[in-house]
Amino acid sequence: MPARQFWTTVLSMVVVFILQVAIAPSLALSEVVVEISLCFVIVNALQVSQSAATICAFVLGVLIDLASGSPLGVRAFSYSLVAYSINPLAGATMLDSLLARYIALVAMVFSGELVIALLQSIIGVDSDLTHSLLTRVLPGGLYDSVVGLFFLPLLRSKNNRDIRQPKSKKSLKETLPPV
């Protein structure tokens, strides 16, 4: 990872940590706290290498677990799992459009919320998984999806092409090899 990208990621992690710990609990709707950090982990995983994304996700998850008083390791494991699983799609051509990257962000936000709920159910924090799915995962995923809209400017294609530039208008006949 280049030095500039490293320091940008570290500074972004600090800002997201402060937002998650200091501001997000004040913006809770019906006891559902937005996971700004989960949105950041997904966006970061689409920008950096898989190992860097997983390490950043783990560190941010541990810090948030320590600061919020949640069971240690729940967010660290779920953030790491989400970052590790979304990163291989970063260079895929199917994520060239902004809408496709946003849909991937929303899918991974719901997946991350589900993993957090499952882990909390397994360790005994939540006794009823169905209740947790209906009161935390679904509303939390929707809330995170709305917050994910603010991360759209950060979602760039990992490919070298600029998304705003129109793709070449070659006909199919010109792109196929000769017979």
Account of the protein in words:
There is one protein chain. By secondary structure, this protein is mainly alpha-helical. The protein has a single domain (3-157), classed as Orthogonal Bundle (Arp2/3 complex 21 kDa subunit ARPC3), CATH 1.10.1760. It has helices at residues 3-23, 36-45, 50-68, 74-86, 98-122, 129-148, 172-175. It is globular and about 65 Å long.
Spell out the blueprint of helices and strands.
Elements: H1 3-23, H2 36-45, H3 50-68, H4 74-86, H5 98-122, H6 129-148, H7 172-175
- Oligomer class: single chain
Q: What string gives the helices and strands in order?
A: HHHHHHH
The 3D shape can be described as globular
* Euclidean distance between termini CA atoms: 43 Å
